[in-house]
Design brief:
By secondary structure, the protein is of the alpha+beta class. It is built from 6 helices and 7 strands, in the order ααβααββαββαββ. α4 packs parallel to α5 (137-155) and α5 (137-155) packs antiparallel against α6 (211-221).
Length: 247
């Protein structure tokens, strides 16, 4: 084997090892997230039930009521995090049905514009008639809204968000591609671990660091894949691929 061939083989083996490590890390994260989510759910059910009983007993003019409301706000945030953990672990309840993704995006356009904000240009560039895919439309809306929210946060001001669909094919066969791309300036941020849980910053909503990990878990549970592409200039693009059969 020549030095060139040996270098190519080493590079290939290195990429395979990295992929294997990433898969193992993601699987470990999913299992831990699922276990924690169930434990949290049990605790929160008892906590919120008792809080609601106490709130019902206190008059609305009570000076102590706002203290209980603060506690309930924290419990609600914990419940939201618990739902994110279920999404990360791929243990959400699914109700899949044949879904026209173009129609779903068009129906959600007003909400997506509100999420993007008044200073961000949001554009839908959808393919012609596309095949339906078997997904839970409620969860898919959550994924799209979450990615538009992530794009808005990445822009941190004026910019553009483009949502596109296309039917494409690779060695594994045909697939429907849904892309949410934004025009944020290039940065040296490490995007290789963007789908892993991250600590929330002081300004973020509690649980914000789990948002993209939850999105990946939901996409995987729907039988699709998601990748982050930082080679678009400028900007970042999230690609979701839904396998198509019988085409």
């Amino acid at each position: 084997m020549s030095l060139k061939d040996r270098g190519t083989a080493d590079s290939t083996n290195g990429h395979a090892a990295d992929d294997h490590l990433e898969c193992a890390r993601a699987e470990a994260t999913s299992q831990l997230a699922g276990t924690l989510a169930h434990e949290f759910s049990n605790l929160l059910t008892a906590m919120t039930g008792r809080l609601e009983m106490l709130l019902d007993r206190l008059p609305r003019t009570s000076g102590e009521r706002h203290l209980l409301l603060d506690v309930k706000s924290g419990a609600d945030a914990a419940a939201r995090i618990s739902r994110q953990l279920l999404a990360i672990s791929g243990r959400q309840t699914l109700v899949p049905e044949p879904t026209d993704i173009n129609a779903l995006l068009q129906e959600s356009a007003d909400v997506l514009h509100q999420i993007a904000g008044p200073t961000t240009e949001l554009r839908l560039d959808l393919a012609g008639a596309v095949p339906t895919v078997a997904v839970d439309p409620r969860l898919l809306r959550q994924v799209v809204c979450g990615l538009v929210s992530a794009a808005r946060d990445g822009l941190a001001g004026d910019g553009r968000i483009a949502i596109t669909t296309a039917v494409e094919s690779d060695l594994l066969g045909p697939f429907l591609r849904l892309t949410i791309a934004d025009s944020r300036p290039w940065s040296d941020r490490d995007f290789s671990r963007i789908f892993e849980p991250q600590p929330s910053t002081g300004r973020q909503q509690r649980g914000a660091g789990l948002a993209l990990a939850a999105i990946r878990g939901t996409v995987r549970q729907c039988g699709a894949t998601i990748t982050c592409d930082t080679h678009v200039q400028p900007g970042v693009a999230f690609h979701i691929r839904f396998p198509l059969s019988g085409i």
